[in-house]
Each structure stands twice: as C-alpha cells, then as structure tokens.
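Slide 14.
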Amino acid sequence: MRIDELFNPDNFQLEDFDLKDDLIFFMNTEPNFYRKAYYPTMCTFKEYHDKGKNINPLSFKTLVEKAYKEYKKEFPVEGLENDISKEICEEICAEIHKIELENIKQGHYNIEK
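Slide 15: predicted structure.
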C-alpha cells in the first residue's frame, strides 16, 4: 500500500497492489508480529540449517497465513479474500526461504551465548 493510499483510501486500486511484497514487508516491519512470530521462526530455521537439515519452503505456510490474518485486521483492504490463496502463499513461502537462507549465510540470527 502506498503512503497516499493510507491518507486517501479512495486512491487505492486493487490491481496496483502487490500482496506478496506488501505481506513480506509487513512481516518484517510490524514489531509485534516480527518479535512474536517471524524472528522465532527464523531462529528455528537457522538451527535446522546449521544441523544440515533441508527445509521445505512450505514450512513457512503457518507463518504466512498468520501474517495474512493480522495484515487484514490492520489494513482492511476491500477486495482481499478472507484467506490467502494457495498460490500466493506458496510464492511468499519460497521468497522468505530464499531471502532468509541468504541472511543466515551472511550471519543473521547468530545468537551469542
């Protein structure tokens, strides 16, 4: 959602909207969701990766579905379905997997003990 659409919802056009990018941005920037759901999931992902386990991108399905529900509560965009479509969910899961795998390789989520 663009900034002008927040202040003037009449400017919003559903066809200009990229749910995938918007939802990924939401998961990474909404403080409560990030702290309580996203970050712990990524720490677990890192643990599995460090143990040499292969992680299926669809492992993030529950996280994405939860994010979508919270997103819809915060941004009640007219025209969005009640549940996220299987196709978009899978695309988001694949994108998160790709992004976070690279983040792990760069040393993100390393916890000093």
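Speaker note: The chain has a mean pLDDT of 86.
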